[in-house]
Design brief:
5-stranded antiparallel beta sheet, mainly beta, 6% helix, SH3 type barrels, 1 helix, 10 strands
Length: 142
């Protein structure tokens, strides 16, 4: 597991903001790690364990760059492989996939390419044969 201790002068990588430098670390506060970023030229505060928001499930601040070469990417994500949700995956972090939903970083166990639903194309003749009637007896309604 990565060292979560941040010190002034540490070069750090934020999944949301890119590379930055820790410019201040305070104690006794909720957001103790102050990081300066070049692009955009702004400072952001993080919790002592590197979370952008203390309600995030996983940190967004690391000492090394995360592998995000193919991200962000729209995918289906799940924690149980039974129910899948379409989300924009920000990065693959360790054995999980990170999404950002309403400003909260969420880690998912599984991700896959979006599964296209199979569309059946039928002619009126095929429908009539299936139901044992003539084409003239079919009315399509929505």
């Amino acid at each position: 597991m990565e060292n979560r201790e941040f010190k002034v002068g540490d070069k750090v990588y934020c999944i949301l903001n890119g590379w930055g430098v820790v410019v201040q670390v305070t104690s006794g506060e909720r957001y103790t790690v102050n990081v300066s970023f070049e692009n955009p030229s702004r400072n952001f505060l993080y919790t002592p364990n590197g979370k952008f928001c203390d309600t995030d499930l996983i940190p967004s601040l690391y000492h090394q760059k995360m592998n995000i070469t193919e991200y962000p990417k729209m995918m289906e994500v799940s924690n149980n492989m039974f129910v899948w949700y379409k989300r924009e995956v920000m990065a693959k972090v360790n054995d999980g996939y990170m999404t950002n939903r309403f400003g909260v970083l969420i880690n998912w166990k599984f991700a896959r390419d979006i599964q296209e639903k199979e569309v059946k194309e039928l002619t009126l003749k095929e429908i009539a044969e299936k139901f044992g009637c003539s084409v003239e007896d079919i009315r399509i309604k929505k």
